[in-house]
Amino acid sequence: MSGDLQHIVILDDWDGICDTAPAVQKLRSRFKVSIYNHPLEPDALAEVIRDADVLIPFRERARIGATELAQANRLQLIAQTGGGAAHIDLAVVAALGATVTLTPGGSSPSVAELVIGMMLAHDHHIVRGDKMLRTGAWHAMLCRDSGTQRLGLLGFGPTARAVAGPAMALGMDVMAWSRSLTAADVPDGVSVAPSLEALLGQSDVLSIHLPLTDKTRGLMNAARFAQMKPGALVINTSRGAIVDTDALITALDRQHLRGACLDVFEPEPLPPEHPLRRRDDVILTPHVGWTSRDTIHRFLSTCAQNIEAFYAGDPINVLPT
């Protein structure tokens, strides 16, 4: 199949990176490429998608549902950035006969650095210390070394694997758990917890690395937090809906947990008056784990490969149906 006249539409390039990205320049040698660098309302998005053969959305910045796809008569491929497609109505896409591809692992190095950075920032009071000094105060703050702690990885996909190495370099004992994980699946130095309960009960730091599914939505609820080791730290850079926020706040209020580091929320954006914003025992970032310049270039490079393979008749990185 020739792609010479196909039209590629890139959505939500809020950071203005795509226009000069090498991967996009390469695509322009074979395809017509249009880039939108601002959010579009559903009706406007539907008009944009109407003229697209290929759609490249940036993560979950735009919902792509029945309304947005109502006029998508030309759409053949959604080359999604990232490893999930929860914001896409896959039933509508299937009815259109279109394919969805992913860019698995593209954000893993960036998210892994954020996980380690959040842990160090919390346990060495980097954020609280900075705030304190800006008020003119000066007080000693008791910190916590990483090398005396066990890191529990809930899920063991590409991002959790990228976290394990730096954590072990800090001297941490690293344990992982997922439903089908075995000892053969993990690198040397990482142990496999026999159960989720064991992971929760033995981890000083719990880092969540699960996809959002019907089974994982609300997984970290009051009962799960009660199973956690007293004084543990929770880090979530995966999806906000995996954590029951009210249950987390209760666990923090009871001082069963020493703190939380959150890059993802339910809903997003986090409401201005949300109680999490008023706490000193949490570190909050606005879903920035994946938004590094390097991650975006990795996404675009893999998207370009996915598009080329699709039009060569040998699709790769296709979302399983």
Automatic annotation (TrEMBL):
It comes from Roseinatronobacter thiooxidans. It comes from the Bacteria. Keywords: NAD, Oxidoreductase. InterPro entries: D-2-hydroxyacid_DH, D-isomer_2_OHA_DH_cat_dom, D-isomer_DH_CS, D-isomer_DH_NAD-bd, NAD(P)-bd_dom_sf. Coiled coil: none annotated. Residues 23-315 form the D-isomer specific 2-hydroxyacid dehydrogenase catalytic domain. Signal peptide: none annotated. This is Lactate dehydrogenase-like 2-hydroxyacid dehydrogenase. Residues 116-289 form the D-isomer specific 2-hydroxyacid dehydrogenase NAD-binding domain. Belongs to the D-isomer specific 2-hydroxyacid dehydrogenase family. GO terms for molecular function: NAD binding; oxidoreductase activity, acting on the CH-OH group of donors, NAD or NADP as acceptor.
